[in-house]
Amino acid sequence: MDRPRTEVAPIKRIRRIALVTAFVLVASAGTYGLKTLKPAAPAVERGTLWPDKVKRGTMLRDVRGTGSLVPIDFRWIPSSREGLVENINVRVGDTVSPNTIIAELSNPELIQSMEDTLLQIRVAEADLANTRAALEDSTMNHQIQIAALQNTTRLLHLQAATDEELHKKGLNSSLVLKKSQLEAETSAAQLEREEQRVAIMLRAAAAQLQAQEVRIEQYRANYYLRKRQVDELKIRAGVSGVLQQLAIERGQRIAAGTSIAKVAEPGHLKAELKIPETQAKDILLGQAASVDTHTAIVPGHVVHIDPAAIQGTVTVDVQLEGELPAGARPDLSVAGNIEIERLSNALYVGRPVTTAQPDTSIQIFKILSSGEAVRTRVRIGRVSVNSVEILQGLVEGDEVILSDMSNWDAFDRLRLN
User: Fold this and answer.
1) 283 and 379 both lie in a single domain
2) In a domain, 392, yes or no
3) What confidence tens digit (pLDDT) does each residue in 68-124 have?
4) Do residue 409 and residue 369 come from a single domain?
5) Using one digit for the tens of pLDDT, what is the confidence trace for 132-190?
6) Where would I find the H helices in 169-270?
7) Which CATH number covers residue 334?
8) Shared domain check, 145 and 54
9) d(CA 299, CA 293)
10) Which residues contact 385 (CB under 8 A, 6 or more apart)?
11) Distances (CA, A) of 50 to 154, 300, 327, 346
């Protein structure tokens, strides 16, 4: 008779439990391993990157800014008179000469004042002519009177002389002689007084004529002043050059002294560069510079540094040396580099596309001989436009990537194809 095998069932349960437990452990270990496993390095096309090698030698340290060409010699043209702008005869960019009429103003009051002064001159000239004619007539009458008195005086003197001869011969009395002599002396005195009166009258007439002539000259001077003021309603350039700015419009009323236009001499230009204020602290007068006009590179040197920063930039004036290239004109946009210093025996590399501030640490990818690029922390020193000084993290001959690598911020290693 067979006996049942009761010990088999517990053994199978134990084996099944052990297998399940082992499977759970293996699955847990695999899941943990997958979680802790680093992702594979992504592949990047080497041709799309901008690599550079670390070098040792002389490093040019410079700063860069943009700006425009501005004239060294320019002049603001003011309006000498108040008036209403009737015509504008030029446009910005036109070449002007000293006699070029930029604008024409109208001022009816000034023109009326000039015409009134002209009428005053004509009235005064007519009064002068009338006075001169009257004085000439009066003078002629007095001269006739003097001539008559002279004849009378001569006749009386002759009569006195005759009576004196007759008295000596005893032909007339002494009373007749004295009467003749008295009449002759009285006529001579009357003639002298008349001559003195006429002389005084002539001097007074001359003074009166001179006063009227002075008044006429005063009117004429006033007329020439008004005429010049009316002529100044035509605003002329006064200098030769190129019209840069025009600050008026037709129909606008402007006051005397208003600046209406800016004329610059085109042959004398300088570059005004806007340098970031963080980079301008090392700029000094006389430092060499180069200005790119988009057609040529023009050498120059720093001649002025604005003491104040405006909107994060400092204005630096660069005087250009040599002849300007064709097409150089005021307000032409330019770019310029200013040489700060040359560092000898410096370890340097090209400046990364990402912002690199001096005396900071940055992370860039260093290319290994295996064809991979690994993220590396680098300490940089002084910074230039196109290069940075390496203080720590790289050695001469290392090759790094200068391109913008922000798309791979999640990876520390890259495979270069």
Assistant:
1) yes
2) yes
3) 998 888 888 999 889 999 999 999 888 899 999 999 999 999 999 999 999 999 999
4) yes
5) 888 888 878 878 888 888 888 888 888 888 878 887 887 778 888 788 888 888 888 88
6) 174-231
7) 2.40.30.170
8) no
9) 11
10) 62, 63, 64, 337, 351
11) 130, 31, 34, 22
